[in-house]
Amino acid sequence: TSGGEVILTPTVGAEFSGSALPAGWTGTAWGAGDSTLVGSGVVSVEKARVYYTAGSFTPGHSLEFVATFTTGQWQNVGWAADSEFSTSWAFFSTKDLLMSSTDVYARTSDGTETLIAGNYIGSPHRYRIDWTATDVTFYVDGVQKAQHTVALAENMFPIASDNTVDGQAVQVDWMRMSPYTSPCTFTSRVMDAGTSVLW
Q: Are 27 and 49 in contact (CB under 8 A)?
């Protein structure tokens, strides 16, 4: 990965390193004032969405990511069947018009919403959404926080979105989707000092 760690190869993996979105990802504005910035190892999204366009997937996958939610309205990171959120989706989300701006919720497109107890606004946390044919399970920092019994049968893809211009962008450090290829082979690069040295 971009930090030098070695992991098994995920089905979908985005480190958001460099200065542009990785191959297979696109950014689309929700409206005027949109901003999608890749830098310092994160993608910052405001009044826009960033999503995977190289394929969509059936139930039976887990999506894991490190994200920093802020107090902006309509910040959503997770699964979606389309980039307009008009059909199936499963998110970690900040408030809409009916919710508090200082909390994170687990939400699914059947209308189920679960408040994630604790303070998760303004600092990075590791989130995971396990999606099966019969339910969606939500984890924060390795601890299960919610489970929604809902059949989301449409193909979906990873997405991160913010729908308000308020200077409060949602940031995503990385996203990875299971399954992970196994076994894998890692071949180290050659480290040539250019002269005789003691190791």
A: yes
Q: Would you state the structure tokens that stand for residue 102, as one six-digit string?
A: 């200082």
* Dihedral angle sign, alpha carbons of residues 103, 34, 26, 66: negative
Count Cβ atoms below 10 Å from residue 91 Cβ, excluding itself. Answer: 26
User: Do 108 and 152 form a contact (C-beta atoms < 8 A)?
Assistant: yes
| pTM exceeds 0.85 for this model | yes
Residue 75 CB contacts under 8 Å (≥ 6 apart), including other chains: 69, 93, 94, 161, 162, 163, 168, 170
How far apart are alpha carbons 153 and 164 in whole angstroms? 29
Q: Are 157 and 88 in contact (CB under 8 A)?
A: no
Peptide bond into 158 cis (omega under 30): no
Mean pLDDT of the chain, nearest integer: 93
Coil/strand/helix, residue 16: coil
Query: Could you read off the pLDDT of 81-101 as tens digits, one per residue?
Result: 999 999 999 999 997 666 666
The H or E element containing residue 36 is strand 35-39
Cβ(23)–Cβ(45) below 8 Å: no
